[in-house]
Amino acid sequence: MTIARTLDDACAALAEHPDALLLAGGTDLMVGVNRGQVRFDHVVVLDRVDELRGWRRDGDELVLGAGLTYAEMGRGELPTLVPALAQAARTVGSPQIRNAGTLGGNIATSSPAGDTLPVLAALDATIVLRTSNGTRRLALDRFVTGVKQNALEPGELIEAVRVPVLDGPQEFLKVGTRNAMVISVASLALVVDGAGRNVRVGLGSVAPVPVRAVEAEAHIGGCIDWDAASVPDIAAVDRFAELVVEAAHPIDDHRGSAAYRNHAVGVLARRALLRAFPGSAP
Amino acid sequence: MSTGPYVLRVNGHDHEVPDAHLGESLLWVLRERLGLPGSKNACEEGECGSCSVQVDGDLVCSCLVLAAAAVGREVTTIEGLAPDGELADVQRAFIEAGAVQCGFCTPGLLMAIDTLLDDLPDDGAEPDDLTVREAISGNLCRCTGYGRILAAVSIAAGIRREHGA
Question: Which chain B residues are Cβ-neighbours of A22 within 8 angstroms?
Fold first, then answer.
C-alpha cells in the first residue's frame, strides 16, 4: 500500500504497480471490497495528496482538484461559480457520503447515474489525466466510454477537472425515491452561457454515458429573448422538452422503466428551463 | 495480502493493529481487532449509517474507510463520546426523549448528531428542522419513526448551548 503525499509519489507508485487500485473517498470502491468483488494486491491512497485537493481559478476557468469532496463542492464560492455542480453534490448520498466521496471518484467510477456527470457534460468539462510521464487532457465525452468504462490507462490518474465560469443561471434536477441516499432514476443539468447566448443540457441515468441534448440546445437558443431572460413562445418550451426526451435512450431496470425515465426528463427539462428563464409565459 | 502492523489513533489513543488483511474496513478493524464494538455493522455499503464515526472531525461511514489508509487520522467512535463513563450530552438527551428502541442505530445517530452540534454556527440558535433532518438523513432507524430522535436533538442542542461541548 502507498499513502501518497504528492502527485509525484502517487504517479511513481502507479508506474511501479500499474494495476494498483486507486483509492480516493472509498464510497464506491469499498462497497466492492466489502463484498469481496474487488480484489487487489496494491492500493494507492490519494486522499492526502494536497495537489488533488481544493480548487483554483485560472482565468475564465476553474480547476477543480480530483479530491474535491461533494461537501466541499457546496461550500464557499463554488455554489456561486458553478451552481449546478453544487446542487448535484447536495443530492449525493448522505452527509457521511458527501464528506468522503470525491469529484475524481465520481468521474473514474463512470456510472451512468454519477450525479456530477450531467453537470460536467453540460459545462463541456475537460478531464486532466496524469502519469509519471506527464499530463493529457480529454473532454468528458471522450473520457467516459460506456457503463463504468472509461479511457483511464494503467498507470494514469485523474488530477483535475477544468470547467468554465459562465454568466447565467444553472439548474440540476434529479428524480429518485427520497431526498437522501438515492441513486438517480433520471437527472438533468441545464447551464446558460449568457455571453455565448446558448443553453446546454446534460442528462444522466438515461443512457450508458452522460448525454448532451444538442438538438434541444440548438432549438431553444434561437427562441430566447436574452434581454428579457425569457422564452416568449411557450410552444418553444414544449418543443425543447420533446427534443430533450429524444436525446435520451433509457432502459428498463430495477430503478425505473424506460417510459418513466423519458417522461421524467421531459418534465425536468421544462422545469429547469422555466427556472432559468423565469420571465417565460407559464 | 497482509498489511504488516500499523497504528490507528482512536479516541485519543494509539492502537497497534498487528498484521491485518489489506482489504479490511475501519469498521471491521474497530470491532474485530480493537475490541470497540459500539460502531454497528449492518449494510457494509454506506446506506444505513450505523457504523458512523468521525475521522478528523468529519462524519463518515467506517465501513467505507480502508482501515490501513486511516493511519495518522484522528478517529472518534461512540466509545470516545463518553471516555470517562459519564454520558455525553447527546446520550443523556436520547434517554430523556426516549429516542432508543432496539438501539442498533443509536451509536451512529449519536455520532451524526454530535457532529451536527459541533459544526453549528456559534450564534446559539437551535438548528432548524430541515438542517436536523438532513444531518441524520444518512442514518436509518426502523423502530422509532424518528419523532423522539428529533426531540432528542432539540434537548441535546439545549444542553450543549448551556454547557458547551
Answer: none
